Amino acid sequence: MESPPQDHRSSSKPQRGVEGEAPSGFARGGGDASPYRTEEMLLNMGPQHPSTHGVIRFVVKTDGEVMNVAIPDVGYLHRSIEKIAEKATYNGFMPWTDRVDYLAAMNCNVAYAMAVEKLASIQITRRAEYLRVIAMELNRIISHLLSVGSLGMDIGATTPFIHALREREKVNDLIEELCGQRLTYNYARVGGVIYDMTPHWDKKVLTFLDQFEPNLNEFDRLLTNNKILRKRLGGIGVISPEDAISYNLVGPNLRGSGLKWDLRKDIPYSVYPELDFEVPVGNGEAGELGDCFDRFMVRIKEMRESSKILRQCFEKIRSLEGEEYQVKVPKKIRPPAGDVYVRTESTRGDLGVYLVSDGTDKACRVKFRTGSFTAMSIVEKISRGMMVADLIAFIASLDIVAPEIDR
Amino acid sequence: MNIQEISKKLAEHFPGISIEVVEGAKNPVGGVVVGDTALIVPADHIQKICEILKNVDSFSFDCLSNLTAVDKKDRFEVVYQLFSYKHLHSITLKVILPRDEGAHLPTVDTIWGCANWLEREVYDLFGIRFDGSYDLRRIMLPDDWIGYPLRKDYKEQDDYHGISTTRPSLLQ
Asked: Which of A71, A256, A345, B68 is the most exposed place for a label (fewest CB within 10 A)?
């Protein structure tokens, strides 16, 4: 029997107060004072489990509360979206991209549209770019709200989740007014966006932001600065910067490990170079650099930055009044035979779209390289020696969305 | 470094091995290159080439951004997109494999941590084997699934453990 891996909270020796020989049929625990037999237990966490954020299964090998390893088993939500992409036309595939990551549908829309536009040499207008950025940043806010809210709920704090959902509902209403949908937006098109914003919509968003920022402060008082949360997340699931790069973690998970890297800033696309915002990184304030709290904190800070971006966007889009929001593209888009790889910063980090065209009006191959997929592959390595309850916090802090893993 | 410089430097490390630069797709009107320019490397040497690309300072490709495959009907292409956080340059490597049942190439999972899952996905959906991989199992589909769905000639099995994989149209 191996001794349990080191953990600052597991007591070094179980205190059981039973002396003498072990009852017959029970082997002695390896070197422990306990007469009772201990053995490794194999547990299934999932596929239907409230804390796994979708249909994912973890095969957990555990000895009491301390895990030896948690092996993720994915694929329950595999809908072969990449195969469907080969059967649909370029614009006909757009609604399917919503389903790649349903919490960041706008980012998936735009990433796919950008890949097609790059290969087919379509230049969209600046007004369309701004409308896309506005929708993407609103999407980032509600995705992060759900992430930090459900993280709180996973470890036992229900109230902040309700507060987060309350704010999320307001943005859902705004997005519904923009594109008619509350979850799967289908808003971007190859060549721009499908609708312009409605009259006075910008004022409604600004009114929302005016009350969202104080509410975020309240959220901080309720959850972020909560002593219990800091203790539950601090020093747990530490990912070193080297591991983060080797396992290709992206987005807030990478920034949580202290790397100041954001595609919007470092390899800018769209109109992001014209906008002024900070890239928040983890600093190990609740424990170690790269722990669960750092990843959580990066998301909280990013919501404030998104809010900043939105205010600038509305100021700049005013000067573009009257510009087209969609350029004319041929009914059947036929990009030249070849391939292109486009990276964008989705809410879950670097979303890569690899598009191969064979010169016809249907793609030869489309691949979505998503943040959740690679984040999931690091779970096995980090979970060794973790406590079972911490696994829940760890998965929640990675902000995994199951459909994005399986596609 | 741009791709021409990278290929030149890489050729110094591998004398006698053909490393070909293939220009990306061109816009038919202006003739501007819009697609990604790639390096075509031989399958046998992919592991060594990736090791050099990661470990030599002037390359420093510390991140395997993407690994996937394409079925081009007459051949398989395995595509590696590498990126360097240090130098901020990126490169596309392509390996061309004959299109048959036993398509295989060496693994790169000892070089980048994320490679294993990406290779498993390619194995699962294309049936391309990665020699020397420490854990090559199907990832999306069940272990006893027949066929590789992203191949162009894939035909779905009629049923899976007695469950039909098709259903009559609801419109009839």
From this structure: A71
Tokens for B134? 């420490």
Contact A246 B62 (CB under 8 A): yes
Q: What is the pTM of this model?
A: 0.85
Name B8's Cβ contacts closer than 8 Å, sequence gap at least 6.
Answer: none
- Cα torsion angle, A79, A85, A91, A92, sign: negative
Q: What is the pLDDT of residues B34-87, one digit of tens each?
A: 778 888 888 888 888 888 888 888 888 888 888 999 988 888 989 999 888 888
Task: Name residue B31's amino acid.
Answer: G
* pLDDT confidence tier of residue A158, bands split at 50, 70 and 90: confident
Tokens of A12: 């070094």
pLDDT of residue A207: 92
Beta-carbon count within 10 A of A209 CB: 17
CA dihedral B106→B108→B114→B120, nearest 10 degrees, is 0
CA–CA separation, A293 and A316 (whole Å)? 35
Q: Under an 8 A CB cutoff, do A369 and B141 touch?
A: no
Give one word for A359, left, alpha or beta, with left for phi > 0 and alpha for psi -120 to 50: left
Q: Are B94 and B38 in contact (CB under 8 A)?
A: yes
Q: B70 to chain A: which residues are within 8 Å by CB?
A: 339, 356, 364-365
Print the SS3 string covering A57-104.
Answer: EEEEEEECCEEEEEEEECCCCCCCHHHHHHHCECCCCHHHHHCCCHHH
How far from A76 is each of A79, B108, B140, B141, CA to CA, in Å? 9, 27, 7, 8
Ordered by where they begin, the domains of chain B are 3-164 (3.30.460.80)
Neighbours of A360 (CB within 10 A): 12
- Between B25, B34, B114, which is nearest A248 by CB? B114
Do strands B38-40 and B90-98 pair parallel, antiparallel, or not at all (unpaired)?
parallel
Q: How far is CA A56 from the centre of its chain?
A: 15
User: Following DSSP, what letter does each residue of A173-213 receive, concatenated?
Assistant: HHHHHHHS-SS----EETTEES-PPPTTHHHHHHHHHHHHH
Give pLDDT tens digits for A64-118.
888 888 888 888 888 888 888 888 888 889 889 888 888 888 889 999 999 998 8
H or E, element range at B98: strand B90-98
Contact assignment for B66 to A340 by CB distance below 8 Å: no
pLDDT of residue A7: 46
Enumerate chain B positions whose Cβ falls within 8 A of a Cβ in A: 24-30, 32, 34-36, 38, 62-66, 68, 70-72, 79, 81, 85, 88, 92, 112-114, 116-117, 125, 138-142, 149-150
Q: Domain ranges in chain A?
A: 1-39, 41-73, 81-406
ipTM reported for the complex, 2 dp: 0.88
Q: Name the architecture of domain A81-406.
A: Orthogonal Bundle (1.10)
- A182/A100 Cα distance (integer angstroms): 16
